[in-house]
């Protein structure tokens, strides 16, 4: 594997999950692979899980790790080509990225959608500059349109906890006070569409995702109907994708908050969320703390998904 930015980079999902379960049995068995290799993690945005789990995965593989927060201690970076740099950004990404590539063997990048331009976000302008100019394999640690390390961990979690071969998986929109990117729901949908699960997306009207990610999923606007018979409920907020509301909050209906009465409609579903989660906006305390909540094992699998990805890249260097 050269880069990891979407589901297609990982190849056969059954093989990827099998490899993940092997890694999980003994995560220190591959410590020789990363000897004298360096993982550089670049964050344009905040993180708890991605930062810790990816660093841990790299260390499990014997790698050295370096972390740089672009907005805390690094020079502010200009990303637009052709601008006269007379503002507050003293360095251009076009020099910074190849310089970063000089100091490492693999680069991880977190660069969220900025909602200033849908075209810029959906062309993955920043992530692609790392791919084009770093000279190193690039791992997306959540970019503008996808969060593949999260989706891979979600898939591993479902495979570990499913109680039937083809579970019904429902991704439901839930309210949130801030505009959030579509990367997690896009990516989750992209990965679910590569499985044989019964996959349903439910959201209020106006929150339709980019059709390239919706794919074969059934879209059901009635949340209660969508939840009937669900084996997994994957809650997530996202801001509107469709024009003219791209990046905007257009609904704050708290009846979409996943609570006990929602879970009662399901087939005793297990609850998932990528975290961080706003309690009693996205999900009620009792559901997230309940016996069918998978949020902690799901987060734990972030280490495993990252380790499989880094292991494959190291094996190909
Ligand atoms: N789920 C996830 O990516 O968490 P962080 O934003 O804390 O990394």
Describe this structure in words.
With 317 residues, the chain is α/β, with parallel strands linked by helices. The chain has two domains: 7-146 and 301-316, Rossmann fold (3-Layer(aba) Sandwich); 150-298, 3-Layer(aba) Sandwich (Rossmann fold), CATH 3.40.50. The chain is built from twelve helices and eleven strands. The protein has helices at residues 13-25, 49-60, 93-102, 118-122, 125-133, 148-161, 183-192, 211-214, 223-227, 260-263, 285-288, 295-316; strands at residues 38-43, 64-69, 77-78, 91-92, 106-110, 138-140, 168-173, 198-202, 218-219, 232-236, 270-272. The strands form three sheets. The protein has a five-stranded parallel sheet. β10 (232-236), α10 (260-263) and β11 (270-272) form a beta-alpha-beta unit. The N and C termini lie close together (9 Å). The mean pLDDT is 97. Bound molecules: phosphoric acid mono(formamide)ester. The site of phosphoric acid mono(formamide)ester has 9 residues, from α2. Residues 47-50, 142, 150, 274-276 line the site of phosphoric acid mono(formamide)ester (CP).
């Amino acid at each position: 594997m050269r880069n990891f930015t979407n589901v297609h980079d990982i190849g056969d999902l059954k093989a990827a999950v099998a490899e993940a379960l092997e890694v999980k049995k003994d995560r220190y068995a591959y410590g020789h692979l990363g000897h004298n290799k360096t993982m550089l993690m670049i964050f344009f945005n905040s993180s708890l899980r991605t930062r810790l789990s990816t660093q841990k995965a790299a260390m499990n593989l014997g790698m050295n790790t370096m972390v740089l927060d672009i907005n805390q201690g690094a020079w502010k970076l200009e990303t637009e080509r052709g601008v006269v740099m007379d503002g507050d950004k003293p360095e251009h990404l076009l020099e910074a990225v190849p310089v970063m590539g000089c100091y490492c063997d693999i680069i991880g990048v977190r660069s969220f959608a900025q909602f200033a331009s849908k075209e810029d976000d959906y062309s993955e302008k920043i992530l692609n500059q790392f791919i084009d100019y770093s000279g190193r394999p690039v791992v997306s640690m959540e970019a503008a349109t996808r969060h593949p390390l999260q989706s891979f961990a979600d898939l591993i979690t479902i495979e570990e906890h499913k109680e039937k071969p083809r579970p019904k998986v429902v991704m439901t929109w839930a309210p949130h006070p801030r505009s959030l990117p579509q990367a997690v729901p896009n990516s989750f949908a992209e990965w679910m569409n590569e499985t044989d699960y019964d996959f349903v997306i439910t959201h209020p009207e106006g929150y339709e995702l980019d059709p390239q990610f919706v794919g074969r999923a059934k879209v059901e606007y009635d949340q209660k109907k969508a939840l009937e018979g669900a084996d997994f409920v994957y809650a997530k907020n996202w801001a509107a994708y469709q024009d003219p509301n791209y990046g905007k909050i257009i609904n704050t209906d708290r009846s979409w908050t996943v609570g006990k009465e929602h879970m009662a409609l399901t087939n005793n579903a297990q609850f998932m969320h990528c975290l961080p989660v706003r309690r009693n906006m996205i999900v009620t305390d009792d559901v997230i703390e309940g016996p069918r909540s998978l949020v902690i094992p799901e987060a734990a699998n972030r280490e495993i998904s990252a380790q499989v990805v880094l292991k494959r890249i190291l094996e190909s260097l």
